[in-house]
Amino acid sequence: MAGQILIADDLSLNRTVLRGKLTSACYRTITANGGIAALALARSHKPDLVLLDYHMPDMDGLAVCQELRADPKTRDIPVILFSATADHGHRLSALAAGADDFLAKPLDEIYLLGRIRSLLRSVAHRDEWRLHPNTALQAGLAEAAGAFVVQPHLSLLSGQPDASAGWLSTLAAIWPEARLTGTSVANALGLDAPEQAPDLFVISPEALAISGLHVIAELRSRSATRHSEICIILPPAARANAAMALDLGAADILTLPLDRAESRLRLEKIIAHKQLADAQRRTLESQLGLAAFDPLTGLHNRNHAVTRLSRTITQDQGKFALLLIDLDRFKEINDQHGHNAGDDILQQVARRMQTDLRKSDILCRYGGEEFLLAMPNADLETARHVAERLCARIADDAFQLRNSDTRLTVTASIGISVHGAPKHPLTGEMLNQLLEASDKALRSAKLTGRNRVVSAQANVLA
């Protein structure tokens, strides 16, 4: 669905002209004839973007922007302020009030549409998180409300070595607290890892003259630099390139001659946006990691283990052993000593089994008191030796319960199945057969006395 844009201007002709331009660009619009009406519509309709005239008789655009930023329901809506008075004070006041940009009338239609597209892309990305059903992922949004990054890393891209010192001096005057480095376009595109990339690339006019605007797209496409923000410096004569730069992925444009205060406000907004995006990614990575592990034992969970097994199957055609390990009479522990005691035993058993497994082995909590151990490149003799050692590790020393003098002796039964690679490459279907065979062998171990190892019969795996 096209983005909805609120247009606020006290002059009917201005609203009509803007509405026509945006409708032609396939945006939906709503209009307000003053600041008070604009504020009410923003709160009731929650548009994707707001275009505000600076001067309106009932409530000027600056006050409306400040009110929008103060309201949690509207604070993240992008705002563009515009005015026929484009002096230094108006620009700074607009940006300081939280506007995403300030434009002078008559509005440059090409730049305006480019800026709208850029801001709406950010809105769409943000809303993917806000609408996610996982509340922990949404918490990544709240993380950005914390302390601001006091020393962001800004890297200047300059096409001429002798110009770098001058630009770095200029950036140091704009943001003295920032960490500033200089590099070439080639070096920036050759970075190997995200941790080597800066928070923000500032591209000088000389670099743009040599490399062209496509350097923005190149930085956006590389895995090492795609999460870095990009800001370009343009001379007034090249202002026509601004819309294309935004479409290619630049976060903002600084126009020569640089105004220190305005440039600082724009750079701070870029870094704040990156801080939010970084918080979202950290939260996502954390959640993906948690999704792969059993929270009680710290072992991989069943789903992750099966996924790893399937991947290993396609990469490894050697012999492959599957061990199902089940704690004996575990229900009696829960019934007699409580579920906290049972959880304590499961945690300790997991730690004991992890002691000397190979790096290639995959150990997971399969469910309840049952564990799965997958052993690539292991024949029956090797698997049986490991299984017997695990039985001994579990049974030989009694388990000390936390906050108690109670010590419990626990045993385990293990069922083994082994796939012989030379004649039968391991497939997903064979994996299911191995699991069924291990389960059958485990049941046999239980029925014939517990605390023992039983392997599946050879014809099960033929």
Explain what you see:
The protein is α/β, with parallel strands linked by helices and 462 residues long. It folds into 3 domains: 1-131, Rossmann fold, CATH 3.40.50.2300; 147-283, Rossmann fold (3-Layer(aba) Sandwich), CATH 3.40.50; 300-461, Reverse transcriptase/Diguanylate cyclase domain (Alpha-Beta Plaits, 2-Layer Sandwich). Helix content is 48%, strand content 19%. The protein contains 17 helices and 18 strands. The protein has helices at residues 12-24, 35-45, 61-70, 88-96, 109-130, 135-143, 161-174, 185-189, 205-211, 214-221, 242-248, 260-291, 302-315, 330-337, 339-353, 380-396, 428-447, and strands spanning 4-8, 28-32, 49-53, 79-83, 101-104, 153-157, 179-183, 200-203, 229-234, 252-255, 300-301, 320-327, 362-367, 370-376, 399-400, 407-408, 412-419, 453-455. It starts with a strand and ends in a 7-residue tail after the last strand. The model is unreliable at 139-148 and 458-462 (pLDDT under 50).
